[in-house]
Amino acid sequence: MDHPIKRDHSRFRKIIKGKIRKNLRRFVSKGQQILPKGRNRFTIPMPSIEIPRFKFGDKSQGGTGQGEGQPGDPIQGKPGEGKPGQGEAGQEAGNKELEVEVNLEELASILGEELELPNIQPKGKKSIDSTINRYTSIGTTGPDSLKHGKRTFKESIKRQIATGQYDPDNPKVVPTRRDYRFRSSKTKIEQENSAVVIYMMDVSGSMGDEQKEIVRTESFWINLWLKSQYKDIEIRYIIHDATAKEVDEETFFKTRESGGTLISSAYKLCREIIDADYNPDEWNIYPFHFSDGDNWSSDDTKLCLDLLNDNILPASNMFGYGQVESRYGSGQFYKDLAQAYGKKNDQVVLSKIKNRDAILDSIKEFLGKGN
After folding, report:
1. What is the pLDDT of residue 367?
2. CB proximity list for 192: less than 8 A, separation 6 or greater
3. Are residues 204 and 323 in the same domain?
């Protein structure tokens, strides 16, 4: 039977999971900060969880229904009480949001359940060997850090009973070295897949801070889901206007240029990165491009289609194009891709992202096919 504390903890985790799922759209659309805390762990603000508790106090301290007064007298507090801007400065802490900690698997599970995402089927890539140690048995040797207290205690009692040393009226259990028991591991080789996500974003003048914040939020949740599906994942970032360059994550979301837009420059660099570092026989490759839909010319759009058909799509599990609505963007590139691929190519996924409220729907469009 489970210990009551374990049952309570399990119940609390279910409440937390339900709260996160209920508020998932608000977390995403409002840009609620979900912060990394160590490897594959995150903290989430939870302002609306009330923990039941007893509160003890002296009945003589006053309050409604106590003290002097007659029926019908108005209820009054202390002078200045309840009036904003009045009264003495207090020393009590104000209301604070509760921050709860969840791991990657829990958060990804919530996203998958809410969006009904299928598990990803790797694109027939070669797997990499991953050595995993699972502590599934008990041994008589090992380091002190793996000592199993309960099993050691039982062995000590068994030895004392067998030798007649155990006194039930005055039980003293002192384990000796031969009583020690340790958790023992079995090494298992598992086949794991690796993935790379290549983000490309237009940083020309028509892509403002709001558009970049939408891309930042969407990429966070895409990364979260892919990390739950693959053992090893790498992320690369490309920015472009009329030229393209690879940058780090911080630069990716903060850079803004004022030049024109040649989308082919980003696709060329994406091709070079794949050719140099990611053999399609070994890696699951996910290029995502975000733009407001402007391109310099129809000739450059034709070059983009050639790069997709000849280089990027044959190497990739899927290619995602997200068009972030901007008052300055024409949206023509989405129309060109839709005309070229339409619904006939499951490998190319197109999504229009009108505003923050559309982010979750866009994520479902990108990941909903399980590619």
Report:
1. 93
2. 127, 128, 129, 130, 230, 231, 232
3. yes
